[in-house]
Sequence to fold (699 residues):
Amino acid sequence: MPELLLELFSEEIPARMQGKAADDLRRLVTDKLVAEGLVYEGAKAFATPRRLALTVHGIPARQPDLKTERRGPKVGAPEAAVQGFLKATGLKSLEEAKIQRDPKGDFYIGLIEKPGRDAIDVLAEILPVIIRTFPWPKSMRWGARSGKPGSLNWVRPLHAITATFGLETEEPDVVKFEVDGIESGQTTYGHRFLAPAPIQVRRFEDYEAKLLAAKVVLDPERRKDAILTDAKQLAFAQGFELVEDQNLLDEVAGLVEWPVVLMGSFEPEFLKTPDEVIRATIRNNQKCFVVRDPKTGKLASKFILVANIEATDGGNTIIAGNERVIRARLSDAKFFYETDLKTKLEDRLPKFEQIVFHEKLGTQAARIKRIERLTAEIAPLVGADVGKATRAAHLAKADLLTEVVGEFPEVQGLMGKYYALAQGEDASVASASEEHYKPQGPADRVPTDPVSVAVALADKIDTLVGFWAIDEKPTGSKDPYALRRAALGVIRLIAENALRLSLMKVAGSALAGLSVKPADASKLPSDLLAFFADRLKVQLREQGARHDLVDAVFALGGQDDLLMIVRRVEALGKFLDSDDGKNLLAGTKRASNILSIEEKKDKRSFDGAPDAALYSLAEEKALAKAIGEVKAEASAAVAKEDFAAAMSAMAKLRPPVDAFFDKVRVNDDDPKVRENRLKLLNEIRSATRAVADFSKIQD
Fold:
């Protein structure tokens, strides 16, 4: 079957846009092909700085013929309706129509036959539309072509379009169309400097091979692999180790078509600046990688750059140019760092009085005071020294006003740690400057130092309570203040450090420190707890656990100790994986279903203790006895927070519950016996609620 080759050749496409653009091109073309009845076998898109390319193979040479039936007017309908039907279906007369009998009468049916077109003609129709409407996040319109004003919006000026279609065994045809004066053809171009001459291509295999010969590596993954391999080997050959950076690798691979890896150096005196500042300087300004000494783990005074050309002088001029820029930038960074060290962190804090955190939540200074106050309350709960924790909260945000963080925001917190250590602060106080922002994502490290944990919890809970108080909650996919991330951070801090604290109480304390009060302050902690429950379900789902068990535990009410909730959920999950757990769940749900039906029928509930004198069957007595024993045993185990033991107690209910449903007729003819047995079923539900609400658990 034929294949399509499409290339859109332009000026340099920004690296950050290339991946999505390639995906969009593949999606738009293949979706349109399928909509036209041309079901393909496979498609792959590529991007380099100067081109988007797409290959789609296994496309039928021709659209299938389409036959559709169109229902027309009733037999005997007015002439105008008949003529409209004939015109719409292309029939010459009603003799060419069929008559279909229907309960509402007899109707004319017209058979419309639409012959398929050649696939190349369909492509010539859909490709220019896709190009003209391509969804670039930013695009431009440039000058006139052939004396006519330009009309195409494209990310950068588009120079050529390659579009061929045909069988592998035959010479392909050009898919002929025109966009803004650019006619499609078979001509592309190689590397801008190393092989700029035009290249005639036929199909994808030929196209990719000729581009490679013309110093263009088409596949971005292949470019990344080449850069990473060569960089590692070059560093190793000099006795160093590459500091890998996936985001930088992705960006650099989008800047070059023919990657050439080179190594430069800078003066060792710059190594007195923190490694992270050196790395940020070299990365942000010159898109270069840094290397380290594998023996010490410290950065070396070398860097690795990726050029887009094989220079005749071996790259010496390129290296020298990069060294000159990096030397200047490192000199600036060193000056910023040394300047920052001259001012103590606490001396910067008064400036926060003039910086607004949020118009409804006050200044950064007010927020820092709230975090200090909340940290002092949380510290004893997490085993932190109150004095150190409040000092850490006092200084944690100060580095936001330093020169280095102003230049490189990504090192906020980390620089605070360096500056705190330099001015003689306690190591725990200094570490909290960096760690109170953590964890910032599911893969980020969770702090374990109690001082850091106290400040991190205070920072995140103040943020959550503050935005809840002004009704700025996440909606749908929108979460501008990263409140979901903050809640997940609180959950991980509590669970992974095995902390015992009441979220309701802490949230209440945070609310008391706010100058703004919500309309219904009493509801805020419980609303926020429901948000935590949702985030906990998300986390458990991502870990492969059953999120419905979170509902089953939260449904008991009064649960705001996240650690206990997690442990109870874990124990419940293990129990339900056992045969006893599965069978007890089935029995409990059967009891609940019967109760629901009968309660609805009688318009009443069946609360209250059953009357033992009305038990007539051994299975009733056995179940009643087991419920009493299990309820006491499970409640005692839960009180000791031994959830495994509570589940083991629950397992003892399974045999008597099974026997009861096997031998006992609940809806007895005697109303008193029926009521008593329904009360006994309610006792099953009540007993299991010692550990969870089983009605919330999915089968």
